[in-house]
Structures are given as structure tokens and as C-alpha cells.
Amino acid sequence: MFKKIVGIDVSTASLENAKRRLRLESMLEQQKECIKLGHGALTYRDQRIEGYDAAALLEVNEDLYADRLEALERAVFEFVQSDNVIITPPNREHNAKIDGMQSGQLRQADHRFVRTREEFKRWALPVADRFGSGIGIT
């Protein structure tokens, strides 16, 4: 069980949406203390997210330009140093199964690329090696 959760997003609109959906305003103070939302980018070192047992990047890396991926890698794997990092990238193989989508089509306008599972492995495995992380890909 997680005792404290921190959510970081570059989009203030997404943070407001999360705040509303979580009903943070109506939570008891003790509950509010367990959930913190903050404006930021995972391409910069951010001490607010260091020292946690787990980190989750939910459809994050495809929002970056390729020249910013190395900054994301350092910020998450070098500085956060979590034992558990979960990355959920959209993938081209899945997108092709969505009604009305063409193979390789992007689901969101702000996505810069969409990888296949094999392309994701080719990115993730060297990152894990570089930062000494174990990795499991499904």
C-alpha cells in the first residue's frame, strides 16, 4: 500500500482535472496530506519526486521530442532512483486495433511518436543497463 502519492504534470489543466476527479477539496486533512499534485516536467531534476518506492510514467515519453528523452532518463532513473518504475507507453500495435485508427496513427495531437513493443524494448533495455535498473517488459 502507498502511504504518499505525488503527481507531477507539465499541464496545469491536467492537474486541475486530477484535483477535481480525486475530489481533493472534500478530503479530510489527513487524506489530503497523502496526495500532492505539482506542476513540473520530468525532463528536469525535481527533489519533490525523489525517494519514493515507485514511479509511474503514464504515457509520458511519447509527449517529448526525441532530443529530450535523455533528460527524462536522467531525471527518472538517475535522480528519482526508485526501485520500481512503471512506464505505460501507447504502442502502434494496440492503436491499430482501435476502431477507426490507422496503423501508426497518433491517438493524441501532442504525441511526437508511437513505438511498437520492439521499439520500446530497444529504447528501454539500454536505459536500464546504463542506470543499473532491472527491467521487465510485457
Question: Could you walk me through the main structural features you see in this protein, from its secondary elements to its overall organization?
Answer:
The radius of gyration is 16 Å and the shape is globular. The strands form two sheets. The protein has a two-stranded parallel ribbon with strand order 1-2. Strands 3-4 form a two-stranded parallel sheet. It contains five helices and four strands, in the order βααββαβαα. The protein is an alpha/beta fold. The model has no long low-confidence stretch (mean pLDDT 82). β3, α3 and β4 form a beta-alpha-beta unit. The longest helix is centred in the C-terminal third of the chain and has 15 residues. Helix content is 33%, strand content 14%.
- What is the first-to-last residue Cα distance? 23 Å
Question: Low-confidence segments, ≥5 residues, pLDDT <50?
Answer: none
Mean pLDDT: 82
The tally of helices reads: 5
| Strand line-up of the largest beta sheet | 1-2
Order of helices and strands: EHHEEHEHH
Number of strands: 4
Major sheet details: 2 strands, parallel
What best-fitting shape do the alpha-carbon axes yield?
A: globular
What percentage of the residues does DSSP assign to strands (E)?
A: 5-15%
Using the CA coordinates, give the radius of gyration.
16 Å
Query: In terms of structural class, how would the helical and strand content be classed?
Result: alpha/beta
| Helix content estimate | 25-40%
